[in-house]
Amino acid sequence: MRGRSVRSLLWLGLYAACASALADASAQQAYCEWQSADFAIASPLCGLDGDPARGRALAADSHGGNCLACHPMPIDEEPFHGTIGPPLQGIGARYSAAQIRLRIVDEKQLNPMTIMPGFYRDPALANRIAGEFWGKTFLSAQQVEDLVAYLVTLK
Ligand code: HEC
After folding, report:
1. Beta-carbon count within 10 A of 12 CB
2. Ligand 1 atom nearest to CA at 87
3. How far is CA 110 from the centre of its chain?
4. pLDDT digits over 119-146, tens only?
5. Which end of the chain is more exposed for a tag (fewer CB within 10 A), N or C?
6. pLDDT category, 100, cuts 50, 70, 90?
7. Coil, strand or helix at 85
């Protein structure tokens, strides 16, 4: 009995964390359409400016982008960096902001088999998603722009 209620509390906490990350992301702004060309998205999502400091914090936040779970990054205060994805050190020297934007928004356009989630795919294309997550992107347009602003600084 006791074990069971502890477990359901844990689930509740996990659920609350995920639901609040999604609610934060989608409450900010309605989905903005984007266009890709030449493997890049030239215009900032919803015309927003990004903030590199917020982008760095979000990359490391396991309730946010959680980029560190898969990518080594120059964020030394966090001990664990996953290695499933390529290292993002120097990404700003290899790619333009527009190229980085598409990779965060929808890496599947470059590699349909990738395991990297499309953080700002058109929610209308999603399938097999639990009811309450319908119509939402994983990150808000502002969060994507903050990440782009941070990653271009990694030279
Ligand atoms: C589940 C693991 C996973 C997560 C989480 C993840 N990525 Fe990725 N990412 C990958 C993989 C794997 C690739 C390699 C591309 C492929 O699969 O074709 C990649 C590729 C990229 C690239 C292109 C790198 C290159 O050299 O071509 C960028 C930029 C990138 N990710 C940024 C991010 C950011 C920013 C986040 C957090 C918002 C993030 N990723 C979260 C797995 C992940």
Report:
1. 10
2. 26
3. 16
4. 999 988 876 666 666 678 999 999 999 9
5. N
6. very high
7. coil
The residue whose CA has the least distance to atom 37 of ligand 1 is 67
Q: If you search the block for the tokens 């992107």, which residue do you land on? A: 137
Task: For residues 136 and 139, give the distance between their C-alpha atoms in angstroms, rounded to a whole number.
Answer: 8
CA atoms within 13 A on the CB side of 131: 0
Specify the pLDDT at position 21: 55
Count of CB atoms situated within 10 Å of the CB of 90: 11
Answer yes or no: is the C-beta of 116 below 6 A from any ligand 1 atom.
yes
Whole-angstrom Cα distance, residue 95 to residue 44?
A: 15
Pick 21 or 78 by higher pLDDT: 78
The domains located in the chain, with CATH, are: 2-151 (1.10.760.10)
Pairwise CA distance, residues 154 & 83, whole Å: 18
| Average of per-residue pLDDT across 33-47 | 97
pLDDT tier, 22 (very low <50, low <70, confident <90, very high otherwise): low
- Would you say how long the chain is, in residues? 155
